[in-house]
Amino acid sequence: MNQTEFHKHSATFSNGNSFEKIRRLLDFLGDEPLDILDVGCGASPTLHKTLRTLGHRITGLDIFPASPTSQHSKILESDINETWPVPKDSFDLVLCTDVPEHLYDPTHILREGKRVLRKDGSIIFGVPNHFDLRQRLRMLSGGGIIHWDHVRYGESGWNYAHIRFFTLQELLHGFREHEWFVRAAQFNFMGGGIFPTRFTPRFFRRFLLTRFPNLFSGKFLFLLQKEPLRSQKITWISLDKTPKGV
Questions:
Q1: What is the DSSP letter of 229?
Q2: Least buried of 42, 97, 212, 233, by fewest C-beta within 10 Å?
Q3: Which of the 8 DSSP states describes residue 228?
Q4: What CATH number did the domain enclosing 148 receive?
């Protein structure tokens, strides 16, 4: 079974509302509604309902068959490894979070994003950090590559859906190589980490996260812009606690 067939028959997504994950990266409360493409959205994304309530128009792409409960969503059943079945220059924003790590060629997202986005379009690109401090200690003790947060789902080397493992430096290099411009980056202090939030002050967690994101961030989330930035300044967002939904 290849990777596409695996995802067609395996529900490797969550139906929780992940708006909390992305809301700091872009102003979703602006006056202008956005045309949004959610790549790898899953079968019944609650996120779509939230974005539609805010006035945005959203289309989803996923190989997993849409659920009957997806009536509030327009979901196109599609292999996202192939050319996306939408016209060029037709969207303002592409959402692709917790998806690139599942693809043999994650750069396909960057190439197709260039095609389907309008001139001022953006991508919200997010992946888990497989190399935070807790995971490094787990691997050193023989725990393997399965992320510590995924062990509870019974994942093993035989059925793990993640096939790409990014460092922060590799992500930034890949964006530059494919001529995407980082407008904002969001890091969150690793949830359930080895520094429990109730025992560590907020300023200390924020310092660790800002100074050593590769060690202390649970996810890497980026707002990528298609066109060069008017200002070279990047917005760096550090969350001292992993919000619910992330």
A1: P
A2: 233
A3: P
A4: 3.40.50.150
What gap in Å lies between CA 159 and CA 34, rounded to an integer? Answer: 37
CA–CA distance, 136 with 163 (Å, rounded to integer): 17
Indicate the residue type of 60. Answer: G
DSSP state of 199: G
Q: What is the pLDDT of residues 99-135, one digit of tens each?
A: 999 999 999 999 999 999 999 999 999 999 999 999 9
Place of tokens 């989803």: 60
Q: What CA–CA distance (Å, rounded) separates 138 from 3?
A: 26
Q: Tell me the CB-side half-sphere exposure of residue 148, using CA atoms within 13 A.
A: 19
Number of domains observed in the structure of the chain? 1
Residue span of the structural domain in which 141 resides: 3-239
Element (H, E) at 202: helix 202-211
CA atoms within 13 A on the CB side of 208: 20
Residues in CB range of 29: below 8 A, 6 or more apart: 54
Pairing of strands 181-189, 217-225: antiparallel
Average pLDDT, the chain: 86
pLDDT tens-digit readout, 151-201: 877 888 888 889 999 999 999 999 999 999 999 999 999 876 677 777 788
Inside any domain, residue 246: no
**pTM for the full predicted model:** 0.89
Rounded to 10 degrees, the C-alpha dihedral 62/64/68/72 comes to -10
**Tell me, what amino acid is at 184?**
A
